[in-house]
Protein 1
Amino acid sequence: MNTEGNIDTHQQEQEQLQARMKRIRRKILILSGKGGVGKSTVAANIALALARAGKQVGLLDIDVHGPSIPKMLGLEGHRVSAVEGGLLPVDLGDNLKIISIGFMLPEGDSPVIWRGPLKYNVIKQFLKDVVWGDLDYLVIDSPPGTGDEPLSIAQFLAPDALAVIVTTPQQVAVSDVRKSIQFCRKLQIRILGIVENMSGFICPHCGKTVDIFKTGGGRTMAREMNLPFLGSIPIDPNVVTSSDDGRFFLTQFEGSPAAQAFETVIRLVLEQDNAEKELFPMNNKHTDPVRHLKIAIPVIDGRLCMHFGHCQHFAMVTTTGTKPDTGLAVEYLPPPSHEPGALPRWLHEQGADVIIAGGMGSRAQELFRQSGIEVVVGASADTPENLVQMYLSNTLTSGQNVCDH
Ligand code: ADP
């Protein structure tokens, strides 16, 4: 084929791809710095939750090195069906369609050796040829890292792609997550936020969360990088059980702390999506919106009240401006009633991201975390402004959570 012919084919393919992608309102790449952090689990459950929220959703598993969606959803052995005009996704009903690169691979455990250009072409073919129809969301389980494959996907989707970055508490300390963030920024992919997976362990005896590794790093990193934090999902052995059974964790273990954490993530994804519409009505910029933190502190006589149940007010401190000119705005609100669970609900309604307290029982800490609020305990009876300054400069540390079963 001559060069002109190649250019024509390339252009034709590009047009087909764009025509297909135009029918999809939002494309969300689920990214991680490394494999094994729960990226596919998060992708599958985000897709399901969006579908349950009434959105038309496609889940595209393009993790060429280890497509785990077929096994996770009991679709092993399924083969891709080709129809005129493209490849048909599996329609699971209830607004959710799925296609995986695993549907095209030989069965069994034999590893597939992909040559670079083949991977690129398969990824392009998937994006170009899958007949999704009209979708609200396409959730894409991308290969881990920031190498050639995620790059090809992002380039095919840019400038429309959005990203959710999945990490674990151990991983946030290393540079992989920063690399994923930089990767998105370079490609002008707007990051919807960071999810910290395997964050603490739900004790099977007492049901409480035990922080095996230091948690909260995902939130700290999100704050440092001026990104939304979407939530912490605890380690729950039932996540593995449901994946082994080929069932969605969210439906099988509805109401569990990990399922509730997933629901928080998804609510924030939807909120971010709506926020984008408000922030960027003529959106072409794809910059991360400036996100201000709201920090709640129980106070008595203008200083932190060591027992939050006895406080006179809650100081709601909001960060203003952007680094290095971050300022603080403080508002004092009367506390809600003393019923169990009222405070986490109330603070959540007030939009609090963090609560700084003196002492707090582990059950109360858990309730706040389930509401997507970071808890910092062990703070001294200082003024709200000083405490927030210490918090922002990372000099306030969280006390240990004790499992008291
Ligand atoms: P990745 O896509 O990043 O390689 P997976 O989603 O395949 O990761 O998850 C790797 C393993 O960890 C799977 O066995 C999965 O069931 C398990 N897993 C993921 N998230 C959790 C969690 N929150 N609690 C317990 N196990 C989890």
Protein 2
Amino acid sequence: MVPPTTNPKVSWPAAVAPNMPDYGKERAGFRWADARSALEGLPDGRGLNIAHEAVDRHASGQARSRVALSCIDRRGAHRTLTYGDLADESSRFANVLAQLGVAAGERIFVLMPRTAELYAGVLGALKHRCVVAPLFPVFGPEPVRQRLVLGGGTVLLTTATLFRHKVAPVRDRLPALRHVLLADVAHPDEAPDGALALPPLLAAAASQYVIPRTSPDDMALLHFTSGTTGPPKGAVHVHDAVVVHEATGRLVLDLHPDDVYWCTADPGWVTGSSYGIVAPLVAGVTSVVDEGDFDAERWYEVLESQRVTVWYTSPTALRMLRRAGPELARGRDLRRLRFVASVGEPLNPELVTWGQEVLGVPVHDNWWQTETGGIMIANYAAMDIRPGSMGRPVPGIEATVLSRDPQGSVRVGPDGAPLEAGQGEVGELALHAPWPSMFRGYLGDEERYRAAFLGGWYLSGDLVRRDDDGYFWFVGRADDVIKSAGHLIGPFEVESALLEHPAVAEAGVVGLPDPIVGDVVHAYVALRPGVAPSDELRLELLGHARRRLGAAVAPREIEFDQDLPHTRSGKVLRRVLRDRALQGWGAATSDREGAS
Ligand code: ATP
Ligand code: MG
């Protein structure tokens, strides 16, 4: 298939030149050791700590009075914290942990709405050298319990409401959990049994905290994967990851000190903590923190009123905005928006150009995973975007495409080294190990961790191809790819073609077994508001897909479904669609409940 090659041009406001004007030059001269030395390090050579780089470094200098967080609560009330405020609040939290007898290395779980207290808690725990494990507040009690048990959580930071709904029902099955700290309970006697009111403890704690010696290899964060392909895995990350967060914040997200930055991912996911908390603070910018849930009108309002300049979001969110219609953006002044990036799923080419039309800037796709700890492949501010492509590897990252045999194993040469795929051939995306933010283990599953590496390469489990210019194109997850009549078909490509049709809001494409061709391509389509499903429309969509993709790749069947299953992070759950088709509704529904 011929990839689309239109290259929307970025027009730069005169004052903001891109941080990486020349990709080739930056890449050629890039060393992680240099990137590391651009960070300050703990005073007196005491090592490297994420929280020092994120707040204390700024708070002890000229940036102390700069706004670090611009918080909007659910009702729209606004509150700001400077770098100085955040340094003080996080130090108080670290002192509370010390007073409670919490030791370095203990796991602190964070189940919080998007508020300043979440930020202070995460950073305070990192100062105290605890390991932070963020949880998504929308999880039910069982996913919360499973993760707390797997991670050996001894402290939980949460709110009274979340405690009541998500933790109290399973509290007696969490024997390792010693302290529950409630961020919004003002008086000790108002705290429910087994929990502590945090604000009085913070008020009594000192706002100074000297971060003890921290090794770059000390464990800092525990992130659970989204669970798209199976049960979520706990990926272990270390303080050295901040080197990648700093470099990618600068080179990929193009953060400049005066930026107002908004990452829409919840800190319960790796994007929301690495690029919602760490990277923007390390860069010294102002971050917008919106407690509210997705609402198209509210989001345009936030972009406009907060004067957001750099926006990091997801294809799901962009699709929802697109679904809500361009009228909502009309009359909004979004001229400050300079750079928009997206991650988490393939960014359909349609959305790149939608960004250009509706937001005034195209959307830059980038790729990474919980395991990689930071952005690895990206479209950059100063480079042409290839819509549909994830871009090129971040400077310092060596990426390749490894050849796979029909059973799906990476082929190795006579010397045992993995073999690269030919130019343009589909294979497994692999990254040369190590890099500073590479995960250091799957919690409780050493074997799985070891199996993720081959001959010095980390195997991502994603299938891609690379074009002549070194741009990577996502084909699908190794488990998702459809083999039909000898063709290897990426569901994303088919979904993107369907999404080009004005009637289509969202699509999920799977392969269903067929005795003759192996798999047949089967598409589930959610229609845009006001569009009614009909046989004519089904035929029209089939025709559109055939014209666009060719008969071998186009779906054989299209089903309308306004309620496509998603992971909690918003990805279409193809495995649920497939199970649903194969087993009928009953089995699929129970799977969906468990999906995170
Ligand atoms: P699990 O590993 O538990 O199945 P998951 O892989 O969805 O869950 P994450 O680490 O949150 O968990 O997601 C990373 C994956 O998301 C990538 O491996 C890739 O499949 C997909 N992804 C991320 N960014 C992109 C992108 N820009 N284009 C295509 N796919 C992407
Ligand atoms: Mg994964």
